[in-house]
Amino acid sequence: MKTNSANKSLEEVHGSVATATGKKGWKRILAFLGPAYLVSVGYMDPGNWATDIAGGSQFGYSLLWVLLMSNIMALLLQSLCSRLGIVRGVDLAQASRETYPQFVNFVLWVLAEIAIAACDLAEVIGMAIGLNLLFGLPIFWGVCITVLDSFILLFLINKGIRKMEAFIVSLIFIIGLSFFLEMFFAKPDLAEVAAGLVPSIPNNAALYIAIGIIGATVMPHNLYLHSSLVQTRKITHTKKGIRRALKFNFIDSAIALNLAFFVNAAILILAASVFYKNGLYEVADINDAHELLHGLLGTQWAPILFAVALIAAGQSSTLTGTLAGQIVMEGYLNLRIQPWVRRLATRLIAIVPALITVAYYGEHGLGELLVLSQVVLSLQLGFAMIPLIHFVSDKKKMKGYAIKWPMRIASWLITIVIVALNAQLVIDEVSKFMSEVANPVYIWISVVPLIAGAGILLIYISVHPVLLKRKEFNKSHTPHIQIDLSELETLKRYKNIAIALDFSSADRKSIASAVQLGKTEAQYTLIHSVESPGALVYGSSINDLETESDQALLEVYASQMREQGYEVMTQLGYGSPKKSLPKIINEGNYDLLILGAHGHTFFKDLIFGTTVDSVRHKVTIPVFIA
Q1: Domain limits of the chain?
Q2: What transmembrane ranges does the database entry give (predicted)?
Q3: What is this structure's pTM?
């Protein structure tokens, strides 16, 4: 676990795909195509299947317009994400960290993680059901086996982003082909399909399904993902280069998301033409849908194609969910953990509720859990959409590529519609729950404060960027004050400089800052605190592998500096840097301490403050924060 100071989203593949040199015509366009396909798989994951099947079986073709509207919303929002990543070179989470206070970013990160967990829950259930349908594997064991696919991402990311994109496109091809054949077997009434594009909401149950469809289509983690993936393309940051990148990424999004729309529409049309038409209005379960397809369509291939497409959808979506998790953690917290730890943690969080549901409610409870997961996703949308619109509307930071008023108005209208629908759903569900329980006071104590807090947060993230811009405007118009510096003493030359290192990419900046201040005349001491459990207990008496490794790394740094003419020593501290660093500094004869801008702990930093804040109050010499 370490902080990431490189400020590059998905650093291992950042700028790894060339788009300009030696590429012309279709080759240049194809170089840009790819990021939106990784995003689009989130629009056809098993969660979509559950809401589409529920909508088609209960209300026929009448909610088809919701899919079309969701697709238009998605195209607009994903184009905003790609614009943010291309122009500013940051993803949505990084832009939020630059704009909002630390506590607000922490809450936004938690909400983003909940959305990713809800999405991953859908993938777990979908994969398990697909394995059950195709091979007869029990759902319980299918859920457990989904842990293993965590390592496919690690293999693909090491092979490069283009290999991952090719793998995802192949899965999309399998899904699309399967449903094309399913539609051939179903033979839907095209006139009734067209009528389903006329907006209508039959009742409150349809509203619940409609919001689930929106949540399943326009997913919050995709907004973070797309703003990062477009940065895998190496572009020239000239007017021509940026315009070309914006144009080709829009084409990429339009093709990929329209393919996703046709897949979703095919699922809903299949459910409407096969189940609704035969009076089976309560088919909201993927298992039931699979079992009924054979009898109603009269071919054994229909359920097989359904199961194959389900496995492909679950597998493709789970890979992109992992990338989104890495992006939001690095972006909001400036913190990175090992990819396999990240993947395993996300997957385990999703597996637990799935196993509990199977154990207590049986396999048929998974269908309701799938729809619920998509409603949870929809409830998170406002917290990602509002900051995104603010960021791409900022004329100063977007350097002439801010969105124009028509797109700005359309973006805000979409956000208002989604937030209003979610608010209506929350009010309806809470009112229904209160009428069913004997003592609603517990709901007032537990649920209502959470709803109120969410409302306050939405208002805050909406107005904070506006107030921040006004503050910056007033600050820039503050009159300049003349200061007489003639009586100040000559700056002291530092002779003995201590440099605190944490073996992250921030070390380079810390060492560079130190040698700029001390030149070759100063003496430097490289300091690192060993934080292993043994070091915390035994202090300097410890002699474990981590201590030896840390000492060796310090010596590598020191030898490199000595070769360049600097006088360098090394020293290890033991235990928490907040305690060991001040002790070393105050006992030594140092003139200056160089610290990186962030510590490398996690929850302790969030709760008790960073290492920088703690150390600078305990040392008696100046502290330079690199």
Answers
A1: 17-467, 496-625
A2: 29-44, 64-86, 106-129, 135-157, 166-185, 205-225, 246-276, 301-324, 344-363, 369-389, 409-427, 442-463
A3: 0.69
